[in-house]
Amino acid sequence: MADGNVALVALGLAGFTGLMVIIFFPGVRAAMGQMLLGTILTLLAILVVVTMLLAIPGYSIEPLLRKMALVQTDNQVVDFYALLPERYRVQSVEYMDTDGDGQQEWVVFYQFDLADGRSPYAGAIYDSDRGNPPVLFPYQLLPPDRDYLSDGFAYLVPEDVTTVGEQKEKPVNELLVYGQADSTITDLTVFRHTPNTFEWEVPRDDPRRYQPIGVFRGDGGVIYDPVTKHITTTNRVYDRSQMAVQTVYALDEGRGTYMSISDPKQPGAPISQKVAFSFGMPGDILDTPYPEKIVLGFYESLGRPQSQSYPSAREFLTGAALIEYDRGNLAFFGFGGVDGKLSDISEVKVTELQYAPQVEEFTASVTAQGQQPRFLIAAGAFRALVHGTPVSADRVDWVTTMVNGKWRIDRHTHQE
Ligand SMILES: [Ca+2]
Ligand SMILES: [Ca+2]
Predict the structure, then answer these.
(1) How far apart are CA 206 and CA 138, in angstroms?
(2) Which ligand is nearest to the CA of 173?
(3) What is the pLDDT of residue 378?
C-alpha cells in the first residue's frame, strides 16, 4: 500500500473514533462544541481578511517590501516605490556605504519590461552627496554591453577586490552584483567606485561613477574566489552528456580590472579553460554510450587518487588501450616525448573535446560478444602535469565499444 493510502486509512479511523466519542460521551461533546466554534470563528476571520485583501484594487506583496525598505534606512527615509514611475518595479532597497565616504547610499534593484517580453533586473545607487541643497541622484549599475544586469534576481555583495585608484587611508569596497536564476548564479558584474565629479559640482553619471571592471556570465554558474580573486564561469556545451566548459579569469592587479586592454567591453583572456562535468563525474559513467563523456572520464581519472565513487582510469579502457596502459606507454595516451610513468601524471585538463555525431555507428565491430555498435570520438587538446611540469598532450582519437555491458574506449587507428 502506498504511504498516502496508509495515511488516508489512519485519518479515516481517527475520524471514526472521534465521531464515536462525540456521540457516546456528552461531556466531551460539550468541550468539542467550544473548540468547533473557535475553529469556525478563526476560519471566518481568515476568510474576511483574505477577501478584503483581494478586494483592494492593485493589492500585492509590495507594501510589505516597501515597509521593510523604509525600516532599513534608519531615519533617512526615501520611498522608492513612490518615487519611481510604475514601469520600474522596485524589487529591493538596501542601505549601505558603496563609495567609502562613511555615508550610506540606497542600492535599488528594479525590474522593467523589454520589448521582447522579458523583465530583467537593473540597478542604481542613489546618492545625495552632491548639490546645495543636496539632490538625490541615481548612479546606474550597468554592464558595458546592455541596459540591465541579469534576467534573474539581482543582489549586491561588497568585497575588496582591488585598491587601484583608491587613497590608502580610504579603502573602498568593490561591488559584486550577482544575478541568480533558480539556484544558479548566472551573472556576475563587478563595479569599482570611480569619482566622476568634484564635491561642489552637480551630480552626473557620464562617465559612469560605478564602472564595470568585470562582466561574467555562465549558464552553469559563476563563482568568485575571495582568496585568489579568480572568477570561474561554467557554460554547458554538451547538453546530452552534462558537460560544460569551465573558464577561469584572473584580476589584472596592475590595472585593477578583469577587462581586456584591447576591448574594455570584454573580459581579458582567461588563465585556464577546461572541459568538465557540469555536476561532477557521474558514478554510472560506464553505463552511458556518450563517447565524449567516457573520454573525459578517463582523463579525469588519470592522475587522480583512487575513489570508491568512480571507476579507475584502467576501467575505462579496452583492447590495445588496456594493454598499453598496463605497459605504462605514455605516448599511446597522447603524452609523446614525455619521460615518465602514467602514475607521474596529475591534474589533467581536457582543453578541447570534439565528438562527431554524424559518424556515430559508422561501423559495427565484430567482437567475442557478436556485433557491437561503435562510436567515434575525437579528443582534442589536453594538458597535464608530469612530475609537476605542465605538458601539452597530442590529440588522440578514440572509439567506444560495449564490453561486458559497460562502455569502454580504445584508440581509433584510422584503418576502418
Ligand atoms: Ca557613501
Ligand atoms: Ca577596493
Answers:
(1) 12
(2) 2
(3) 58
